[in-house]
Amino acid sequence: MQQSYDAIIIGGGHNGLTCAAYLAKGGEKDGANKLKVLVLERREKVGGAAMSEEKYPGFTYSTCSYVCSLLRPEIFRFLDLPRHGLQVIPYDINSAPNPEGEGIIYYNDHDRTRESLRRHSIRDAEAYDEYAMEISRHCRFIKRTLLMTPPDPTQLNPFVQNRINPWGHREDLDGLLRIGREFGRLGERHMYDMIRFWSMSVADFLDQYFETPRWKGLAAASSIIGTALGPYSPGTAYVLLHHYMGEVDGQIGAWGFARGGMGSVSKAIASAAEEAGVEIRVNAEVEKVIVKDGKAIGVALKSGEEIYGKSIVSNADPKRTYLKLIDKGDLDAIDPDIHRYAKNYKIRGSSGKLNIALDGLPQFAGLGPEAAYGTIDIGGDFDYIERAFDDYKYGSWSKRPFLDCVIPTTVDPTMSPPGKHFMSVFVQYVPYQLAEGPWTPEMKAQYEKDVLDTIELYAPGFRKLVLHVQCRTPWDIESEVGMTEGNIFHGELTLDQLLFNRPFPGMGQYRGPFDNFYMCGSGTHPGGGVMGAPGANAATEMLKDFKRGVVQ
Amino acid sequence: MTDIIVIGAGHNGLITAAYLAKAGLKVTVLEAAPQIGGAAVTREFVPGYKVSGVAHLLHGLHPTIARDLDLARHGLDLKAQPIATRSLLPGGRSFDASSIASISRADAEAYPAVMARLARMADALAAYALHTPPRPDIAKMDWREKLNLGKFAWSLRRLGRKDMLELTRILTMNVNDLANDYFESEAVRGLLCFEGVLGLALGPRSPSTVFNLLYRLSGLGANGQGGFLLPRGGMGSVSQALGKAAQSAGATIRTGAAIDHILIENDVAAGVVLSTGDEVRAARVVSNADPQRTALQLIGPRNLDTMFVSRIRHIRMNGCAAKIHLALDGLPEMLADARGRVVIAPKPDDIERAYDCAKYGRVSDQPALELTIPTLNDPSLAPAGKHVASIVAQYCPYRLRETAVNEARHQIGERSLAILEEVAPGLRQRVTAMEVLTPHDLEAQYGMTGGQWHHGEITLDQVLFLRPAGQAQNYRMPVPGVYLCGAGAHPGGNISGAPGYNAAREILKDVRAWRAA
Amino acid sequence: MTSYAEHLKPFLRKTPFHERIEALMHGNHWMRWTGHYSPAAFESVQSEYLAIRNGASVYDVSPLIKYRITGRQAAEYVNHLITRDLSKVKPMQAFYTSWCQDDGMLVEEGTIFRFGDNDFLLNSAKDQLHWLEQVAYGFEVAIDEVSNDLCGLSLQGPQSREVLRALGINGIDHLPRFGIMEFELNGHWLRIDRAGFTGDLGYEIWVKPEDALWLWDRLFEVGRNHKIAPIGAQALEIARIEAGFILIDVDYSGALHALRPSNRMSPYELGIGWTVNLNKQGYFVGKRALRREKEQGLSRYVLTGIEIEGRKPAPGSFLYADQPGKQELGLTTSACWSPTMKKNIAYARVPMTYAKPGTQMWIEIWYHKEHKIERSMVRCWAANRMFYDPPRKSA
């Protein structure tokens, strides 16, 4: 049998491309063509959910993901992405409009935030610093685990040897000890705080610091974005971190726009990958992974073509990978539990998106014009968000949704004609399927109307500026990008699906159940967001296996 | 002069007292109520009708404690057959563990294996029940702590790789997802969800509810009594037996002695001051009260550091369940043979909706219920031919927003009766008297802050070394000589006695160190 | 009509004295202080420094964060908060103290003013209302942030008393160190306390914001003959180091705002153990931890003064026990050339055993030499941190 590729990557999302580039470079910064890598993309162009598209003449939309900061600086540097055209423009304003009075706005600048918050509550203004420190401490700890393969706590015996770990599970033990040492540095008092923080609700956490309901609602925003949980659910405080741990130029918690829309991220990584010798094929939808004797040996395309390779990597989400791309029979031959794990994998879509072309800059209620230059979170107090979640729980979109809006064209001159703007509206919560059944065009229209009505309430006069709306439900996101149920993180970021349990218990180290089969998508550690870490980590593990002769 | 004062004669206080007295210390137990027992009492709520005050089922009492204190000799009968749980569904249907097949064949097949697996995991977790929680900083542990931790890790590892990984997965999950993973029928899921949320101010879709489920299951296995028991004479009989055990070991018990505060001299415990103003002096004071009451009222924030006070203040102590007692002049057909435990929680979404109300500070429109009719096993609790029913109704939040407490009391009572009437028609006419205890009432009657039976919810952020608060998990309060032995300490609530047992061990350690010095 | 660039408008606050300060400033030498414009220097740091040690210097201290503490149990509360014994402080007295977290790590140190039995004003450099209110649990006390209700000038220097006399403050001669007096002058309310951050004779004058410009003008009018001059933070910094005062975020991280927990320091470690009274009545936050630290000798190091050979200022320099630099001892924080003492001085964190005055150590200094950075290893000696302590300070 002819094996023409060292690695075949299913899916050209940012993680697939990152993984491909790392592999082709053989893990060396100046490497190229070390491994022969093929990326297969179903659509006509690569990028997955990090995509810029012109959906309305003259306007570039970031159709799915819309802000950038989680992309690890290590990957930036390793792949030399700026040379490939990627530029991230940080912004530092976050605001919550208020139709009943003054809105809330905060900045990266501490003094400015204090000045702004004290207009609502001097207590909140004064507690902000302590709160930010607490968050930073947690981030500093978590950040170190991002670019590391999560150790498996059941496999710590350094003397048990197997094929993948010919020298025993030293790496797992090492990893665990490394985390332990890092943890030890916190000091006993902060250890308690941190462990408690992981399992508490964001509402409980914020209540310890703040009193203004609207401000608490704004601060809670990042803990529910993309998550099928409300602010009163335990475990949401951690998700807060997942959004805070991004950075731009070392500034923890900062967010930025990719110049030219999120498609520039994919384009830059793809360009870096191609330069390293990766072959990218678009319009090549993979139908099945070919498994023989417990080994993944190739893929079968929808066109009927079969391609063989030494290793197969899936950038698709775990559910799609194990329920669609792989035959149940192949899985059951290894372990019948895997099919059950895949079936039970929590990947509920909970968010929709509206992409809007605007004739001018909207004015938000209770806020100055600077608000439009950052994130605008339309919502309210905890109850507002929780009620939006209640609608979702029982199978409906939120009638008064929580909206995370950005207008990247305030800082990016390339995405719209001068004076006009592109606004990205992230809608929380929208179910993948309604209680009544699948989405119908009428329901989608009603959902779009509910969202626009909500914006109008918080930005009077908004409707008059609207030139075009692209409305998307999780259903649309699934059918377009292929993410199961339209879940933006390839699986919920709850504690039961993190670290060594991501995606499934015992498969947290990027290796699939078959020999030569790997995972590199957001469904693996450390999870979703345009971060690139899963792709890079997967490549690191694969290169180890290549070196040890596990992949032949 | 006494060596040690125990504040509160709840079951944990009595257990601590008994162990300390057995070790030869002079122990005085001071109880505010006229009788001992705290939340494990048998009360006459209407003349002639007696019922277990708060707790109405015994399952978690640790066998080690029952054996050490020889409770059988002191009158506690633990040989009774565990009772079964039956779930009542609308339309006159019902099922218990043996008749799930009538609901779903697949679930009937899966049920025993799933429950056995969960029980195995729960038992592995419970390996820590009779140990003091470790510190998270391994570098600071002594050899004994390391040994305990090692044993615990081993008990987890012994589950096997699959189960251990499954445990790490489900530990933080919500019970609704777990139920969906394992079962297909709404009815079986509903029952599992109810077991997961009982005693919490959380719904089935809230993460951390699986942990509560495992916690409850741990009391049903080797670390408890093997199932739910309805002790003869009500839960008061448990307390009476513990009281006798303590007294026979030499402890003195004084009832009707309410404590105003703990006497602290030179930043060290010196005794207690009664509400009458009298002082009782002792070098060590053990509090069976909940952590908030102990730290914020008995010790007082002025004797404590601020972060510690703040941690104690933020313990979630929202009682969310009401206790309802019914005097019945007969039983409707559906309950005529309800010797076991009856659960009315037909669907996970029903419980979730009930929780939604509580989330916004309202009484559930349709509460989920747990009911026992102890008179079917023990007719002595009511006049001949009559019955009492003891009901736990969830949710009736302590933190009400727009409802007055009186109104809430009325609402939870009426709404619970309406639900009972639906599944057991004819019940309403049988009710001759009713008592409803909202969390506010429980707080007032039993001194449990927030009306929370577990002295703090059993959720992941409030267990092990976070119980009652970081750096106080070793049963010692920051003021030297003050200890905590109640359910607010590790491992937590239910009538398990483990906190009292552990506290006694830690106190004896200090006493020995002091004597040696 | 809003401006098109409104989203770019600056947000720093101006103190009530801003107009006058701006008028005297050469160049644009502003810095930030709690979100306010604050002068770093006017023209020459050297002449401003001389105003402190030779004439009368004026420094705008309005940006200080101020908390008013009142209520039936305010005194008990403050006593629980701070490490010093409040019973020794009478009304109309100011005092310097530390306040700590549970584990004895310093939240901040600073001056608290006591106006009445239950009436206090706490000045701080960092936001801490959240902390103060947490400590207040269980006390009948009200804590109000009143930073904008008062503004003040620090008048420091040997001639400062002359200036106040000339201003017409009767009784200023009798105001003891750390005393407070209130005064009515031409219908304007003034509060004067005798404290400062320079280690010299000096006062702080507080007025209502609307009287700020009046006060400034009057001071400079009567001070003309007493060598009065405005100063910026850079000149003050030299005087502060000479006087042995520590500064948050320079010499230590406040416990509430330290990102790395190990960066927090206890009063003993900062060499202000004298502010801790373990024998006072009642418990105070951190008492158990501080007692343990003191009795068991748990302090990791102590911030001591050092005198350094040569004249190259040595901030952030490593200290060693030996010339080759094999055994590292610690690190300097604040450092400067003392123009008055003609000494090269610094504060350094060193092990307790090295803190005895006169103990010799080595210090590695990296310094600028015409666009290049060079290294020198020179000797230094532990010294009392209060390098400059003139009798007039308390006379």
Number of helices of chain C: 8
Widest sheet: strand ordering of chain B: 6-5-13-14-15-12-16
| Sheet with the most strands: spatial strand order of chain C | 10-11-12-9-3-13
How large is the share of residues in beta strands of chain C?
25-35%
The total count of strands of chain C amounts to: 19
Helix and strand string of chain C, N-terminal first? HEEHEEHEEEHEEHEEEHEHHEEEEEE
Assembly type of the chains comes to heterotrimer
Which blocks of ≥5 consecutive residues of chain C have pLDDT under 50? none
Label the structural class of chain B.
Answer: alpha/beta
Largest sheet of chain C: 6 strands, mixed
Radius of gyration of chain B: 22 Å
Biggest contact: A-B, 40 and 44 residues
Helix share, percent of chain B: 25-40%
Give the overall shape of chain B: globular
User: What share of residues are in beta strands of chain B?
Assistant: 15-25%
Radius of gyration of chain C: 22 Å
- Helix content range of chain C: 10-25%
Distance between the termini of chain C: 60 Å
Runs of chain B in which pLDDT lies below 50 for 5 or more consecutive residues are none
Report on the structure:
- The complex is a heterotrimer of chains A (552), B (517) and C (395).
- Chain A has 552 residues and is of the alpha/beta class.
- Chain A is 36% helix and 18% strand.
- Chain A is built from 18 helices and 20 strands.
- In chain A, the strands form 5 sheets. In chain A, strands 1, 2, 11, 12, 13, 14 and 20 form a 7-stranded mixed sheet that branches.
- In chain A, helix 1 packs parallel to helix 18 and helix 11 (318-325) crosses helix 13.
- The radius of gyration of chain A is 23 Å and the shape is globular.
- Chain A starts with a strand and ends in a 5-residue tail after the last helix.
- The mean pLDDT of chain A is 90.
- Chain B has helices spanning 11-22, 63-68, 105-125, 143-157, 161-170, 175-182, 186-197, 209-218, 236-249, 291-299, 306-313, 348-359, 405-423, 427-430, 439-446, 498-516, and strands at residues 4-7, 27-30, 42-46, 49-52, 85-88, 94-96, 252-254, 259-265, 268-274, 279-281, 284-287, 321-328, 341-344, 368-372, 387-394, 431-437, 482-484.
- Helix content of chain B is 36%, strand content 16%.
- A 7-stranded mixed sheet of chain B has the order 6-5-13-14-15-12-16, sandwiched between helices. Chain B has a 5-stranded parallel sheet with strand order 7-2-1-11-17, with helices on one face.
- The two termini of chain B are 21 Å apart.
- The model of chain B has no long low-confidence stretch (mean pLDDT 94).
- Chain C is of the alpha+beta class.
- Chain C is 18% helix and 32% strand.
- Chain C contains 8 helices and 19 strands.
- Chain C has helices at 18-24, 45-54, 74-81, 129-135, 160-167, 212-223, 233-243, 287-296; strands at 30-33, 36-39, 56-60, 65-70, 93-100, 106-116, 119-124, 142-145, 151-156, 180-185, 188-193, 202-207, 228-230, 302-308, 318-320, 328-338, 343-350, 360-369, 372-383.
- In chain C, strand 5 (93-100) and strand 6 form a beta hairpin.
- Chain C starts with 17 loop residues before the first helix and ends in a 12-residue tail after the last strand.
- Chain A binds chain B through residues 153-155, 180, 183-184, 188-189, 191-193, 195-196, 198-200, 204, 208, 229, 232-235, 337, 340, 344, 346, 383, 386, 390, 393-394, 494-497, 500-501, 505-506, and chain B through 135-140, 157, 161-162, 164-166, 168-174, 177, 180-181, 202, 205-208, 307, 310, 314, 316, 349, 352, 356, 359-360, 459-461, 465-466, 469-471.
